[in-house]
Write a structure and sequence with these properties.
By secondary structure, the chain is α+β, with helices and mostly antiparallel strands. The chain is built from nine helices and 19 strands. The strands form five sheets. Strands 4, 5, 6, 7, 10, 13, 14 and 15 form an eight-stranded mixed sheet that branches.
């Protein structure tokens, strides 16, 4: 849309006035998160670009992670709870021989194996067989440097101050861990005193398919501990839909007054879709039960005029509203 004089034009050119910092936008963006940005940085950048205060992401990515991040803008932030529930795919590089306090390449070295020890271990293991040991249902201890809160304290803030919280292991599922490649890389390591050094270390490139809430850093840490040589996550990319756009591209489009690259919210949700008639749309707008439809048990996406108007829950023959979005989320294909 185009912005001028506090008036916003929506995707169809309808003028919408701004109120309380609201832009009139309501949609979901698929962004390619760059290395080094926190998920919070991305949200703030989208706020600046769109002029919309209500922006939220569906699932945190570590600063060292790149790749797909879904961001809700406007009332579409209310879809986040459904979008975070999806299983995820990652391409990860596990670097062996050095364990770090953050379980990734940004952390300081906690322990390291000698070149001789490392060569012996790596020569004697079958990488795919080891990865197979880490598939299925696992109890995983989250990294000390994570955004998890315990008694109101954020784990990574406590860790920075030198006191690691005792975090509870959580139940996660690794559906698949496929070895893609292996080799030796130059790893830049941060010593305990903050100085850096470079060392040639062996790595495995692995494609993981995991349930939500799984830490790839923790998988790297645990595989290294299992082998007895230590390991950390060298890099990770979140896999996802091909139309993810860069933050620079998003800024350029907004600057040029082009329509932003909204995703199809119904496709992202993956629920069965109900195309509403006019009277049904009125029922939905008023948050009423839908009586004249049949669907299987569970969530359904209610759409009309290329907009997602609501998510309804179909239970025991009744179809009740779970989340209603006034005005609807644009982008339905």
């Amino acid at each position: 849309g185009n912005r001028h004089d506090g008036i916003y034009e929506d995707s169809r050119g309808h003028a919408m006035s701004r109120r309380r910092g609201a832009s009139g936008l309501c949609g979901v963006l698929a962004l390619d998160k760059p290395y080094g940005m926190t998920s919070h940085d991305v949200v703030n950048r989208v706020r600046q670009i769109t002029g919309e205060r209500r922006v939220g992401h569906a699932g945190t990515l570590d600063p060292a992670a790149t790749g797909l991040m879904l961001v809700g803008v406007g009332a579409a932030t209310r879809l986040s709870e459904y979008l975070t529930g999806h299983d995820k795919g990652y391409d990860a590089r596990i670097v062996f021989g050095v364990a770090t306090d953050t379980d990734d390449a940004q952390g300081r070295t906690l322990a390291s194996a000698s070149d001789g020890e490392l060569a012996d271990i790596m020569r004697s293991v079958d990488a795919q067989a080891i990865l197979d040991e880490f598939t299925g249902e696992l109890e995983q201890l989250p990294p000390a440097y994570s955004a998890i809160k315990k008694n109101g304290i954020v784990a990574y803030k406590a860790a920075r101050e030198g006191t690691c919280l005792e975090l509870e292991a959580r139940h996660v599922t690794v559906y698949g861990a496929q070895l893609v490649g292996a080799g030796v890389c130059e790893a830049e390591l941060i010593c305990a005193d903050g100085n850096t050094s470079v060392r040639e270390l062996p790595f495995w490139d692995v494609h993981f398919d995991v349930s939500k809430g799984t830490y790839i850093r923790a998988l790297a840490r645990d595989i290294g501990a299992y082998l007895g040589c230590g390991a950390h996550l060298g890099s990770v990319a979140a896999m996802g839909i091909d139309e993810a756009c860069s933050i620079d591209e998003l800024a350029n489009r907004a600057e040029a007054g082009d329509i932003l690259p909204w995703c199809d919210p119904a496709r992202l949700l993956g629920f069965p879709v109900i195309e509403l008639g006019e009277q049904q749309a009125q029922c939905v707008a008023n948050g009423r039960e839908l009586t004249d439809i049949s669907a299987g048990e569970g969530m359904v996406s209610c759409i009309r005029d290329n907009k997602l108007l609501a998510v309804y829950n179909f239970v025991a023959g009744a179809c009740r509203p779970a989340t209603v979005i006034p005005g609807g989320v644009i982008g339905v294909g």
